[in-house]
Amino acid sequence: MVSEVSAMKKFKMQNAKCKEATRVALGLFFAVGLAVGDAYAQDGPPAPPAGRGAGPAGQAAPGGGRGRGRGAPPAPGPLTRTADGKPDLSGFYEGVGRGANYGLEEHPGATMLPGGQGIVVDPPDGRLPMQDWARAELKSRQTPARGYDDPTAHCIMAAGVPRGFYVPSPFFIMQTPTHVVVLFERMAWRQIPIDANRKHLPDTVRLWQGDSIGHWEGDTLVVDTTNFNGKSWLNEAGEITSHALHVVERFTPVNANTIMYRATLTDPIVYTRPFTVEVQLNRDASGELLEVACHEDNQDLAHMRDVKEAGTGLEKK
Amino acid sequence: MRGTILSATIAAALCLAAPAIAHHSFAAEFDADKPIKLTGKVVEMRWSNPHAWIYLDVTGANGKVERWAFETGAANGLFRRGWRKEDLPAGTVLVIQGWQARNGSNTANAGSITFQDGRRLFAGSSNPNAEK
User: Fold this and answer.
1) Is pLDDT larger for residue A113 or for residue B54?
2) CA-wise closest residue to B19 among B64, B77, B94, B103
3) Which one of A303, B56, B77, B100 is CB 3.0 to 4.6 Å from B73, fit for a cystine?
4) What is the rounded average pLDDT of the residues A229-250?
5) pTM of the prediction?
């Protein structure tokens, strides 16, 4: 316990140092008016455009300037609306995941996983209300031997709900009066019929992404999803859900470029009470998703199977 | 002054950079306690999913050549950063620092990639402690 507290203190101190470094860098940059490109020039060719396409400071992207820069999003403006008067959510986005792909709670970086600031907004303490057995299972999943068990390691990228919205990867929302479809660059896709009278699939049908039904409450798109198969991990940390999972997502546009996304997860097999995560979804200026054919050359799986065999006595193939 | 700006910018960039997206936990495959640094000639860079791979022939002290496979970030991530397929032709000499696979094979996760002239490339490592 002492070491956990110590690690969290160190993590918070590192965060504070990072914020200060960023403040100093931005302050100096704007005060002196030097182009960042000057800094890059000391180490290699000119940097690609700012944004996702930029190489990190001090490092060169080969053939500098060719980064598929996603750049800064346009300045936020008032909501735009579709012909039927609903907020127009269509477009490319990426969630501000705050490290949730490596743990939904605030957590320090460790050997197994990068740190994260946490996205749990209820309970108010930001901790997941896990049953005791689930905590034990989570601890087991965070050993090298269990990494093989994450479905995404097997390239099953229909990785469940709400994982696609905090994985650091873009997605595209398509909206019509009758459907919202979300195409994730890495996490497959979801189809959401907009029909308040629609019933969920029979209980015998179990799906990786679940069965979603949407409806509008004012300017908020509300999506109710059940019929999960319970095999998904919530993230690389191995956080858990079961087939009893019921997710209610709320997409509330804040302005033309920002959606506040909240998902409340109820799963009485794994958790002692419902909990809610919140992720800001920002429009992405790239205007494209790139191909991710995960099964193409997944050499990692054989290596991870070796680790699992060594660590758990899994029978050799 | 310019040095201060550079240092601060690098510090901010290192802090702000998100870990490269992977489809699996770094530690499930690679061992952060087995750092390696090898110099060799590129045999092939394979642009594939879910990771791109650099195959490097490394000549040991005994003159024997061993082939190593270095995992980098996903092909789409490298493409966004400006990498292109023709950037590492066969025969290019590189120094690659990384972490060896837990199964003890000649496989590693690339942390940093350096040309002979000192230029460094973004490797897209999934190691939480790697430079980004």
Assistant:
1) B54
2) B77
3) B77
4) 96
5) 0.78
What is the pLDDT at residue A315?
59
Q: Round to whole Å and give the CA distance between A147 and B26.
A: 9
- CA dist A59 and A55 (Å) reads 6
From chain B, the residues in CB contact with A186 under 8 A are 21, 23
Q: How far is CA A39 from the centre of its chain?
A: 31
Q: Which has the minimum average pLDDT: A229-243, A292-306, B90-104?
A: A292-306
Chain B residues in contact with A26 (beta carbon < 8 A): 12
Q: Name the residue of chain B whose CA is nearest to A16's CA.
A: B15
Q: B120: which DSSP letter?
A: E
* Tens-place pLDDT, residues B86-97: 889 999 999 999
Burial group, residue A67, by CB count within 10 angstroms (0-12, 13-18, 19+):
buried
Cα–Cα distance measured from residue A22 to residue A31, given in angstroms and rounded to the nearest whole number: 14
Torsion angle of the four alpha carbons B36, B10, B21, B53, in this order, in degrees rounded to the nearest 10: -40
Residue A314, token pair as written in the block? 């899994």
Pick from A65-69, A89-93, A134-138: least confident? A65-69
Residue A37 sits at the chain B interface (C-beta within 8 Å): no
* ipTM of model: 0.75
Q: Does A300 contact B128 at a Cβ distance shorter than 8 Å?
A: no
Q: Judge: domain B2-121, CATH 2.40.50.140.
A: yes
Task: State the pLDDT at residue A77.
Answer: 72
Give CA–CA dist A181/A189, Å, rounded: 7
Contact at 8 Å (CB) between A36 and A29? yes
- Contact state of B88 with A102 under an 8 Å Cβ cutoff: no
pLDDT for A264 equals 98
Of A21, A28, A147, which is closest to B25 when you measure between CB atoms? A147
Task: Give the nearest partner residue to A60 out of B11, B19, B120, using CB atoms.
Answer: B120
CA distances, A213 to each of A1, A129, A198, A221 (Å)? 43, 26, 7, 10
Domain ranges of chain B: 2-121
A61 to chain B, closest Cα gap in Å:
5
- Which 188-247 residues of chain A touch chain B by CB within 8 A? 236
- Rounded distance between C-alpha atoms, residue B85 and residue A305, angstroms: 30
